[in-house]
Write a structure and sequence with these properties.
6 strands, OB fold (Dihydrolipoamide Acetyltransferase, E2P), 1 helix, 68 residues, globular, four-stranded antiparallel β-sheet, homohexamer, 10% helix
């Protein structure tokens, strides 16, 4: 599958915290930590676990820019 | 200002393409290129230009995870 | 690639309108028309054209529910 | 109320799972299952229940496109 | 139509700027100006014009919080 | 920090409900109540509490418009 999302950032899973319906998954991407809030179901379906290679996928319209 | 968004990825602007109302801004973050689709107004208001330090800011609920 | 997004709706491209930076792509999914607003670049990179099979991909946290 | 969101997909509620604050609601839209992640409050306020007619509402800028 | 989005902020249209595909609509809500980036099509379909009563509709998961 | 998000609405926190991973924070902005769904972590990191001044931050592409 090839997707229109402009941002596909490859890294590794460093933590997974499941809530009642929503999980927080952290990826290490080139040393930067990226947090994703996804469904518990998706965590199970993708077989995510700490240390596994995975990518953060982000639509360009969901990215803001900030300056100091 | 301190914001609830979990992802604040520091980098540099590498390109800016303005459309009629919407601009595409690319940041180099640790070697990864991140594309943001923001308003032309925001580009002007933040004084964005190629080479300038800037951060990509992304809410955790807007990040998906993918595996190969 | 397998993605955490809960909604992957298979259909066919029925129209593509490119703007200055942003394109509107319409898919027919089981008779329902779904409109996606994506970058012109993504249209080119995916080689989208009318009649081509494609899927609408939507994160569950971006779906609202309405009743009459 | 008439809304700017381009995608209003009519269907029926097939399941509701409430978490601590966030619920997952599944709709059957022309045979496709669409998952929405909404607040528990919204589930109560809309009086959602399995079998009830409801629509999935999605802003065009939240729809991505993928090809095989 | 009753929608799950938690934020429905009533106001008046104060400006509309159409781009090639995407329009920026500004609403005055209790003295605060809210900018919406929507499709040109939606502007036409809703019959939006300066001075018209309209509401900004925002899903709770799209709202961030900031402190000074 | 200065951010590209077009909507920064200043107000006060009126309620905070924490779930397992996701919290709902309500702000009073000029008499309008705005609900944000953010991570529990962000609530802690920003030191949010009832009565505290805070702003709702919303990207323009996440705002829809509705008419009666």
């Amino acid at each position: 599958m090839k997707i229109s999302a402009r941002n596909i950032l490859k890294g590794k899973v460093v933590s997974i915290v499941k809530g009642a319906t929503t999980a927080h998954v952290r990826l290490d991407v080139n040393g930067a930590i990226i947090t994703a809030s996804i469904t518990n179901e998706a965590v199970d379906e993708l077989g995510l676990s700490v240390g596994k290679e995975a990518a953060a996928v982000i639509k360009a319209s969901d990215v803001m820019v900030a300056v100091a």
